[in-house]
Design brief:
Elements lengths: L26 E4 L14 E4 L9 E5 L11 E9 L6 E3 L2 E2 L15 E8 L3 E6 L6 E10 L6 E8 L14
Antiparallel strand pairs: 1-2, 3-8, 4-7, 4-9, 5-6, 5-8, 9-10
Length: 171
């Protein structure tokens, strides 16, 4: 792709690996969650995807709560790490190795992912191996008691920006 070009992909039930030879922005658009998460509805969200080059080794994060009611009842963390570091991934000090899918990311030969249901409030995601880095996405969704109004949130987590990138745009 050249500057200012876009690419759109539709993903329903898997995770994908994308590679770029120049700086690029990648976003995950979640239109609704009803079809993929046991019919738990939520509102649309847009989350920037953290490049693996900016992965981190430890992360403290929190879920959101609803200011209107107790609609946000389903919370998740998605984690991507190199297959060599799956066995040393921890959530709140406990191993999450069994949560990683047996298959690898579509388009990758080295990375695995996990989608983990979590409780509300604060958590620590880490890797006990100093070289074991990861990126994560935290999100949640729910509806009111009648199932007629949905609410959701999503954000990228686990990025460690360690280098300066100069971007020149002709215009």
């Amino acid at each position: 792709m050249n500057a200012f070009e876009t690419y759109q992909d539709t993903i329903y039930a898997c995770s994908n690996y994308y590679q770029a030879s120049n700086p690029a922005a990648c976003f995950l658009y979640t239109l609704t969650s009803g079809a993929l998460n046991n019919h738990v509805a939520g509102r649309p969200s847009m989350t920037p995807i953290t490049p693996l080059e900016y992965a981190t080794n430890s992360l403290l994060f929190a879920t959101f709560t609803s200011s209107k009611s107790n609609m946000l009842k389903n919370h998740y963390v998605n984690v991507v790490t190199h297959e060599d570091y799956v066995k040393t991934m921890l959530l709140d000090g406990s191993s999450i190795a069994s949560s990683f899918k047996n298959d690898i990311l579509v388009g990758s030969e080295k990375y695995k992912y996990a989608q983990i249901p979590i409780s509300a409030l604060a958590h620590r995601l880490s890797n006990s191996n100093p070289k074991g880095v990861f990126v994560a996405r935290i999100y949640g969704m729910g509806t009111n008691d009648r199932g007629t109004v949905g609410e959701s949130y999503a954000y990228a987590a686990g990025s460690r920006i360690s280098r300066k990138i100069d971007i020149l745009v002709d215009g």
